[in-house]
Structures are given as C-alpha cells and as structure tokens.
Amino acid sequence: MSKHDHLPAHLTRSFSGTYRLTGRMAIFDDANTPFQKVRLSDCQGDHIAWLNLTLTAPPEGITHLDHVTATGVKSVTGHFMIQEFRAAASDEIQALTPLQSLPRIYCPVPEAFDQLIATTQSLNSVHLKECLKRVLEQQDRLESFLNAPASLNNHHAYAGGLLQHSLEVANNTVAMLRLNDPAQPRILQETCFVAGLLHDIGKTFTYDSKGKPNAAWKLCHHDDLTLEACAEGFAYLDKQARELSLTLRHMLTAASPGARYGKPAAMALARYLRDADGQSAMADNERRVFKQDTGWGFRRSRHQAFWRPDLNVLPL
C-alpha cells in the first residue's frame, strides 16, 4: 500500500497496492474512447479508477473478488487513470496484513467492521491471525460473513447481524475469562476472541452473498458446518500450534443447549463461550421487544417472554 492509501481518494493524487476487485463496467468518454471502470476495495475503503482499453488490455481470468495489484494516478479530468492492473502475485497477497483485503463496502455495519479489523490486527499471536485470515478471507464466503443476519426471525436478524453477534460473543468471552481468571496468559484471551468470532461461522454456508438463506439453510444445521468452515485455518494451526487448534475445536464443539454435537466441557473457556453466545442473543432480543416501549412489565417476542421492572417504584 502507498503512504496515501489511508486518505480518501479525492484527497490523493495516486494510489498503489493490492486490492479486491469488487466491480467493473464498460464506459465511454466524450471522445467515444472505451474504458473499463473498476472498483478496487480493501478494509479501508474503495478506489474507483478507469482503465483505457485502447492502451491496455484488461488481464484475463480475473473475476469478482479476486486479488489485483493496481496503480492509479489522478488525471486532469479528476478521474483516477490506471497505469498498472494485473492479477496479484501470491507473495503480494501473503504480504497483506490480516483481513486487509476484506471489502469494507460489503458490510452494512461499518462500526462492527472497523472493530473486526482493528482487533484482529492487534492480536499478538501470528498463528491466530493467520488462522483468521485463512477462514474469513475465503472468497466464496466473505460476503455472507459481512452482510448476513445472525438469524432470520430471532436475535440480530438484520443485515450485518452475524458479524455484530460474533463480535459481541468474542468480546464477552474474553471479558468472562478476565473476570474469572485474570492470571490466564494473553494467548488464551486471544484464543477466546477467535473462538467467539468463529462460533457461528458455519452460517456462512447457509446464506448467499446477499445474506439470503440458501438450500443449505434448509438442509443442514450451521453447527455441523462450523468445523468445515474453519478447516483451512485449523489445518494451518495443526502444523504450527497444535494446542491452539485443539482448544478452538473443543470450545466450538463442547456440548451446549441447542447444539447438535458436543463432548462435555473440559475447560471453563468452553462454558464462557456458551454463556457469551446466550447473553448476546438474549440481550438483542430484549432490546428489540422494548425498543419502542419505555414502559415496564412483561413483553413477548416470538421465542420468549421478557420482563422489565418498574424503575419508578424502586428505592434510590
């Protein structure tokens, strides 16, 4: 990335780096010169640039969300004109920081997206960061992770709800570990964060790129798809940090209410994850049923009843 890439495109004269290709279309200028207008995206934002097709042929074989390396310079007309545009080399992709190439444009909850990027990149463990990179940057599932709901008719049932819920579970799992056993090392705190972030990752198989339920949503339970979704990341950990992969596997599959699998929890971390999941779901449902209601007493969602005390009669 260039030193200017953190600035909005209209404040820079050039850009250069490796991005995801998130859009392109054929256009013509006033002189009827053919161009390809492309959108290049990463975790910080987008660059819209024009490729002059009379001077440069677009590279073959590049499809939606592929990594591309590009350089652009702002012209006298104010448009960014592409000087270099090619498929990114494997070493360029590997050199990207974790989750750097996730397209911010695809997440309808930008504050959650920014928290995801900042927290992941702040992890000390290079192995856990690489694991998350291999799981969350899967090209066929990254859009659904960013914009799918956590459920259709229950908690976090809105676009971006899956990411919001995953972050809440991750942060709450870490908080419980710190509260109950603050002497535990940072590596276990980071493991709790990763487990919380990935606990519902199987849902990325059950929604399409627009966050709509697909055939797998009817045919499979997302719990049963979680380890499959984590396969590449866990295969990496198996070789580099076997104890971490075992810890994460146990946390994600230990028996819990509603789960269709599971050994009894053999470590408190698995209980923290289970409880954090339930807390996030219940809190969101409670907020929703009282959202338009400042009263007190019982209210009911589709799944359960909620009660709020009358604060006016409580002693100070």
Automatic annotation (TrEMBL):
Superkingdom, natural source: Bacteria
Classification via InterPro entries: HD/PDEase_dom, Unchr_helicase_relaxase_TraI
Pfam families (alphabetical): TraI_2 (PF07514)
Protein name: HD domain-containing protein
Lineage: Bacteria, Pseudomonadati, Pseudomonadota, Gammaproteobacteria, Oceanospirillales
Species of the source: Vreelandella azerica
CDD domains membership: HDc
HD/PDEase domain: residues covered: 158-291
Gene3D superfamilies attached to this UniProt entry: 1.10.3210.40
